[in-house]
Specification:
Blueprint (H helix, E strand, L loop, with lengths): L1 E4 L3 H13 L3 E4 L3 E5 L10 E4 L2 H7 L5 H4 L3 E4 L2 H10 L3 E4 L4 H12 L6 E6 L6 H7 L4 E11 L4 H9 L4 E4 L2 H14 L2 H6 L1 E4 L2 H9 L4 E4 L5 H12 L1
Helix pairs in contact: 2-4, 8-10
Length: 237
């Protein structure tokens, strides 16, 4: 199958390797460009939270990195947990799922925590993680450490969709799905872009595609890459 990955290139690298090892052709065409944001961290924290690998990467050159790397870190999934370890964090716990799983894991580990947790995130976020934690009596504060700028469709992606040579697009975030739809509109190929298979990590991610009346949408049984790979296997037949 000819598959499209639209995440930033660094995020797509391992996924592309895994898909190619299964015999698929993969087009990596990032529709987001991650840009670091200056931020100031002055308080004392009881731990760190990330919901994207980009947050760990953005922290890599910051003056507080060494101090923060000694704190417990809670990551939403395996990929963000791996990025945190690569950034130098030594005590990493992965929720292995979505925001609800992350809240559950943090509650299990931090129910009696006194110091607030530091949530490193992008300028655009889904859900209300800080509010969800507050319901359970856990304080967390947000630090925006990167932003994701929209990148237009490449000529390669536009031509592949026009020629009907794309078998499926994999969507790992709601933002990437929204960027895909915006890019298709700008390129004037909405019909072709909606007509291919869309394999989505969760129902929340699929929602913009559903609202746009995409004709073939499949949602992973669990919000992890292994379940998304299973959708690829099903689509291949």
């Amino acid at each position: 199958m000819r598959l499209v990955l639209t995440r930033p290139e660094a995020d797509s690298e391992l996924t592309a390797m895994a898909l190619r090892a299964r015999g698929h052709e993969v087009l990596v065409v990032p529709l987001m460009r991650v840009e670091p944001v200056d931020f100031d961290l002055t308080s004392q924290w009881g731990g760190v939270i990330i919901t994207s690998a980009n947050a760990a990467v953005a922290l890599s050159g910051h003056s507080t990195r060494d101090e923060l790397c000694g704190l417990p870190l809670y990551a939403v999934g395996r990929r963000s947990a791996d990025a945190a370890r690569q950034a130098g964090f030594r005590h990493v716990t992965s929720a292995g799922g979505d925001l609800r799983d992350l809240v559950r894991v943090i509650c299990e580990h931090r129910a009696d925590a006194k110091a607030p947790l530091l949530y490193l995130a992008g300028a655009d976020r889904s859900g209300d993680l800080i509010g969800d934690l507050a319901v359970h009596g856990i304080a967390a504060e947000l630090a925006v450490v990167y932003r994701a700028a929209i990148a237009p469709f490449s000529s390669t992606l536009t031509k592949a969709l026009q020629d009907g040579t794309v078998d499926a697009v994999l969507h790992f975030s709601r933002r990437s799905a929204e960027n895909y739809l915006d890019g298709a509109k700008t390129a004037g190929i909405v019909g072709q872009a909606l007509g291919v298979r869309h394999l989505c990590l969760s129902a929340n991610i699929a929602e913009p595609l559903v609202n746009a009346h995409a004709s073939q949408i499949a949602i992973a049984q669990h919000p992890d890459e292994m379940s998304l790979m299973a959708l690829v296997d099903v689509a291949q037949g």
